[in-house]
Amino acid sequence: MESRAAFYVQIFAASSHYQLQRRGALSSTDPLVTIRQRSKALAIEKLRSEVDVQLRYPSKPVPDALMMTIFTLAVNDSIDVSSSIGDNLEGGREETVVPIGYLAKCRDMQIYSWVDFGKGHMDTIVKLFEQSGGMAAINGSLFGIVLPLNDLPPRVPCQWKLRPLRHPKAWRPDDKAIEMLLIAGAYFGQPTKASLNSSGLELDGQICETISVLAGCSVVLDHIQRVGPEVVVDPHVWMGNCNWACHKLLSIGALVAATREICEEAEGEENRVLDISVYCSELCRLAALLYFDQIIFPTFNPQAEIKSRLTSRLLDLLEAVQEGIDSHGWAMVCDLVRWAALMGAISSMAIGVAVTDRYITFIANHCMGDTMHWGWDAVRDRLVSFLWVPDLDQRGQKIWQRTCETIKLK
């Protein structure tokens, strides 16, 4: 290796990952614990001298290995390999941790749920980025194919091409998967510049296209979990499409103003006319991001409060849609609102009881109607035409049952 710091940090990262896989099973005298601590100390020692040299000669190109060393140390240095994440949430929560998805585990991405980047690491990375000419000058493959999960537009172009899943060299769907492909995302119709769905609501074409791709990726994931990874011939096609969908959702950005501005507009205009298509397109985008977090890459960093911000903003938009349209418009969007509200409620179960209760109150007041008399199976059959997989059934049913109980108590 061109950098001794890079060599030691690789050992540190590998031992951190392995220790995470054996959480709670290692004592302080285990050789792996010693290796992890010693390799970390050596990586820091060598890194300090290499960074000092680099900062002393600012015109000297920054080696990729140096950048990667700092990033790897920043990721693994903050990991607590002995305790669970998010145990002390204000107001409590329904679940300890969102189940880690197959795709997250096969890329070892679950470690990012334990990461809390230190200021010192970040300051050094920023200095070296600036010295290298900014983000645009950084080697695009330096940090691998892991897409940072965030709720802000990406600062780099998408590295992945959208490729067809239904190809014998990519994926071999069975009969159930083929049946699911006909249903998943069907609500959004055939994506065009402006897509009309089955209810006649006009939604943003980019949102519809992205959700359709995400629906196909979900069917592949369900097939893998039912049968095994061998059903995917070329996993790079499937993984690349997942990355493409996430990058697209984030790149589109918010389609309506921030929550504070929504409230200000509502106060300033007594007869404000709500653009249903735009607001519902944003509902779809936020609900799809939460679905991505729940099913595709359930590794959003709880310390960054991304899930909290997404669920809060989704609830604000749901309330804005409910207040801003008449009964005719509500009949057109009620199925969409019900799906988005359930996605937000399920996501809120990992945040805190107070947020979940707000969602349940909203669903009870605005999303039930005749559906209160439906069984859960009938409700789920309506949800699968949006974004829904069996992994969500247990949590969705729990929310639905609590909502029905809330109505009965009134």
Describe this structure in words.
- This protein has helices at residues 4-21, 31-56, 64-77, 102-106, 119-132, 175-183, 205-227, 235-252, 259-268, 276-296, 306-324, 327-348, 353-366, 376-383, 393-409, and strands at residues 194-196, 202-204.
- It is an all-alpha fold.
- It has a two-stranded antiparallel ribbon.
- Helix 1 (4-21) packs parallel to helix 3, helix 10 (276-296) runs antiparallel to helix 11 and helix 11 (306-324) runs antiparallel to helix 12 (327-348).
- The protein starts with a helix and ends with a helix.
- Mean pLDDT is 78; it is low at 83-93, 191-196 and 259-271.
What's the short version?
The chain has 15 helices and two strands.
Radius of gyration: 23 Å
Give average pLDDT, whole number.
78
Outline the biggest β-sheet: 2 strands, antiparallel
Strand content: under 5%
Question: Which terms would index this structure?
Answer:
single chain, Transcription factor domain-containing protein, two-stranded antiparallel ribbon, 2 domains, 410 residues, mainly alpha
